[in-house]
Design brief:
CATH superfamily of the largest domain: Periplasmic binding protein-like II
Largest sheet: 6 strands, mixed
Number of domains: 2
Number of strands: 12
Mean pLDDT: 88
Low-confidence stretches: 1-32, 314-326
Radius of gyration: 23 Å
CATH topology of the largest domain: D-Maltodextrin-Binding Protein, domain 2
Distance between the termini: 32 Å
Strand content: 5-15%
Number of helices: 18
Structural class: alpha/beta
Strand order of the largest sheet: 2-3-4-1-5-11
CATH architecture of the largest domain: 3-Layer(aba) Sandwich
Helix content: 25-40%
Order of helices and strands: EHEEEHEHHEHHHHEEHHEHEEHHHHHHHE
């Protein structure tokens, strides 16, 4: 789903935006890098007639069109949004698959200095796993240079600011969403296994990993799987590591990652999972009416978009109609699970060279710092937004709840979990290390290779992806 970009060699920026290749040891031949090429100081201006926004799907486009107050109309094909002052917003959407989005974005940023005014990128979106690649380059603009102050974003969760803060302390982006994670479980299965579907009682049963594993054994005895596949619990472990993935040129595999390996091998051997992988058809089917899986680790976007979609889009429920009575709608609930974690998130970055600095500032302020707008997004979409007072109000509202979750106020649990998110161990190598470690151990989980062979496969894969990393250290 998320891929790193490949170093672009042999291109140059003209004038004051001259290119200086960094990262990946200057490797050519398609070696992947964690850094965008650096360039000179920020250059922004105002008065452009076209606002160019780059992203990988239509999520931000829908938020913009539905909630940015200055939107006047949207073209039938949704490629152009017209604002009240006549400015046209042009959307460039390049899917993530096979590194497509980042490759095309990187190429366009390299050509930004020479692009015609109406073709310059003004805003581009980044995800948590590769945010630092752009944040630590000069292709992103300090939001303070746009006029956004610490007072403006004081109500945002601190971790959402930390993840887009560069090495010099400059905040280089902002987001309308926070993404704390929970454990979403089937009420009917919980009743059969635990005798209750009450979120507080289920949480007591799953409050730590030892209890979680014990419930997996109970669920298996009743004919259920605790998790769908190998990767389901990964983020909960990887978000609770004791140090970053990389120290100098060493990849340091945290003991908590190996706890995930141990649990997943145990679950696979004992039949506590269904041997699926994230995003595959079997994994999605396990979330629907015929699924026999106790639950899924999901963050905010996952519950109200992915889980809900997978639960409803079945042959028995053509078109994914949102109707109670298909055997699954209302049969999910959420609890905190064994450990706090986060998963995902999308950040808005201002591109260096934008000629719409005032408009970019206004978009950021309205969509990420306006309490009323953020609260309405959550009311309408059930997504969790990045405004603490707004989310606190909904968390304390006795009338607010999710029909999909049987009326439960999941915002209350997200509000409880979000302040616990710790980004201190995040780094620019996270995406590659997370992807490669999961891939390397699947054959081990299935019993096709040994632990040592799985480790060797990870070492080979990570060194191929990041040639500048020369050693992998495993916990004792």
């Amino acid at each position: 789903m998320r891929k790193y970009f490949k170093s672009i060699v042999g291109l140059a920026l003209a004038g004051t935006m001259a290119l200086s290749m960094v990262g990946c040891g200057g490797a050519a031949g398609g070696a992947e890098s964690t850094e965008a090429p650096a360039k000179a100081e920020a250059q922004v201006s105002d008065g452009g007639k076209v606002l160019n926004i780059w992203c990988w799907n239509d999520e931000f486009q829908s938020r913009f069109n539905d909630y940015y107050p200055e939107v006047k109309e949207v073209s039938k094909d949704k490629s152009v949004t017209t604002l009240n002052d006549g400015t046209e917003v042009h959307w460039t959407i390049n899917p993530n698959e096979n590194n497509n989005y980042q490759d095309k974005l990187d190429d366009a940023l390299l050509k930004q200095a020479d692009a015609a005014a109406d073709d310059k990128i003004d805003i581009f979106l980044v995800e948590a796993d590769y945010a630092l690649k752009y944040v630590d380059s000069d292709y992103t603009v300090n939001i303070a240079d746009l006029g956004i102050t610490s007072e403006d974003n004081k109500d945002q969760y601190q971790y959402t600011k930390d993840i887009v803060t560069d090495a010099n302390g400059a905040v280089k982006g902002t987001t309308w969403q926070a993404t704390p994670g929970l454990f979403a479980y089937r009420r009917s299965i919980a009743k059969d296994v635990l005798g209750t579907d009450d979120p507080e009682k289920v949480q007591e049963a799953l409050a730590d990993w030892d209890k979680f594993n014990a419930v997996a054994e109970q669920a298996s005895a009743k004919g259920y799987k605790m998790l769908s596949g190998y990767d389901d619990s990964y983020r909960t472990f990887s978000n609770n590591v004791s140090a970053p993935w990389v120290d100098g040129t060493k990849v340091v595999v945290d003991a908590n990652i190996m706890k995930w390996v141990e649990q997943t091998k145990d679950f696979t051997d004992k039949g506590y999972n269904n041997k699926t992988s994230l995003w595959d058809d079997s994994w999605a089917a396990d979330q629907g009416p015929k699924g026999k899986v106790f639950g899924f680790f999901y963050s905010t976007w996952g519950i109200n978009f992915t889980l809900l979609g997978n639960a409803l889009e079945t042959p028995e429920d053509e078109g994914g109609k949102l109707e109670v009575g298909n055997g699954i709608f209302g049969d999910y609930a959420v609890c905190e699970g064994p450990q706090p974690y986060y998963w995902g998130g999308t950040w808005i970055c201002a591109a260096n060279g934008t000629d719409n600095s005032e408009l970019v500032k206004d978009v950021m302020l309205k969509l990420t710092c306006d309490k009323d707008i953020d609260k309405q997004i959550t009311v309408d979409t059930q997504d969790y937004t990045n405004n603490i007072p707004a989310m606190t109000e909904l968390a304390e509202d006795p009338d607010f709840g999710s029909a999909f979750l049987g009326g439960q106020n999941h915002i209350a649990l997200f509000a409880k979990t979000a302040p616990k998110i710790d980004m201190s161990n995040a780094g620019k190598y996270d995406q590659g290390c997370n992807e490669k470690i999961q891939a390397a151990f699947k054959d081990y989980f299935d019993g096709n290779i040994s632990m040592d062979e799985a480790k060797a496969n990870f070492e080979t894969a990570i060194k191929e992806q990041y040639p500048e990393l020369t050693e992998v250290v495993w916990p004792e």
